[in-house]
Amino acid sequence: MLTLYFSGTGNSRYVAERFSSLMQADCHSIEGDLDFDKLLEGNDTLCFCYPIYGSCVPRILREFVSAHQSSLQDKKLVLFCTQLLFSGDGARVFTDLLVGIRYQVIQAEHIRMPNNLCNAFPFPVKDADQCKKVFDAADRMLLSAAARIRAGTIRKRGFNPFSKVLGFLTQRFFFQKIETIAKSTVRVSANCNACGACVRRCPMGNLRLATDQHGQRHVVQNGNCTICYRCVNICPSQAITVMLHKKVTHQYHGPVQ
Ligand SMILES: Cc1cc2nc3c(=O)[nH]c(=O)nc-3n(C[C@H](O)[C@H](O)[C@H](O)COP(=O)(O)O)c2cc1C
């Protein structure tokens, strides 16, 4: 089995790594510089882990799937979507990307994880103790999923028509438009000291440092943001916001915190 994940702030990576160690599967980020077609073709069962954004698969993962479509033929799929609260059909929506592809979903779960939308009222970022409880619950879900897979029991969370309608009407319908606008909504405040941490860590190469006519360095964007909130959460000066521009007071540093 091969696990591939995208993780903006660490939650989906946590799920991917925990599950892979339970299943003794290879585990890689889609940000890696690997021969993914070879990896995909060499495995019959693939696990994909990703955060859900407004009941949509992150654009970076959609683009990955589109680039590797032909290597995804005839696979068994395990789908884990990580979420703060609710996505309706956040795991099922991955299968919408597999146009003309034969596949069988053998496990699909929505796994609640801590909030990484660190400046979104009314969802405060949890403290370490609260996060620990969430991770423990996730661990239990993963143990059950692994046991079901070993027993050959299929479970597909969010694959019924009701979940699909809920995911679309409550979130996806609006979020698809927000996502397009949000591609170039990175805002950098005067607190930025141009350390370049966001530039180095952006998974889309959306950010770069430019020097103005006074010799000052600034972070500028290329209109390619996938809204993963990594830069918002790692900026040492809490100077970056994306999509939502409320001041950041408490960043989410992922499962390592
Ligand atoms: C732009 C954005 C949109 C999100 N939308 C949802 C959502 O619709 N439902 C939900 O429950 N969580 C939502 N979340 C929360 C994340 O899905 C959740 O915290 C996830 O575990 C983050 O995973 P990561 O650390 O691997 O990036 C959203 C987060 C972001 C950044």
Compact overview of the structure:
This protein is α/β, with parallel strands linked by helices. Helices cover 33% and strands 19% of the residues.
Average residue pLDDT: 96
Given helix and strand content, the structural type is alpha/beta
Taken from the alpha-carbon principal axes, the silhouette is: globular
Estimate the strand proportion: 15-25%
Widest beta sheet: strand line-up: 2-1-3-4-5-6
Per CATH, the superfamily of the largest domain is Flavodoxin domain
Order of helical and strand elements: EHEHEHEEHEHEHEEHE
When the domains are counted, the total is: 2
Rg over CA atoms: 18 Å
Explain this structure to me?
The chain is α/β, with parallel strands linked by helices and 257 residues long. It folds into 2 domains: 2-178, Flavodoxin domain (Rossmann fold, 3-Layer(aba) Sandwich), CATH 3.40.50; 183-256, Alpha-Beta Plaits (2-Layer Sandwich), CATH 3.30.70.20. 33% of the residues lie in helices and 19% in strands. The protein contains 7 helices and 10 strands. The chain has helices at residues 11-23, 36-41, 59-67, 128-151, 161-182, 197-201, 230-234; strands at residues 2-5, 26-29, 45-51, 75-83, 103-112, 155-156, 187-188, 207-211, 217-221, 240-241. Strands 2-1-3-4-5-6 form a 6-stranded parallel sheet, covered by helices on one side. A hairpin with a 5-residue loop joins β8 and β9 (217-221). The longest helix is centred in the middle third of the chain and has 24 residues, at 128-151. It starts with a strand and ends in a 16-residue tail after the last strand. The relative contact order is 0.16. The site of flavin mononucleotide has 25 residues, from α1 and β4.
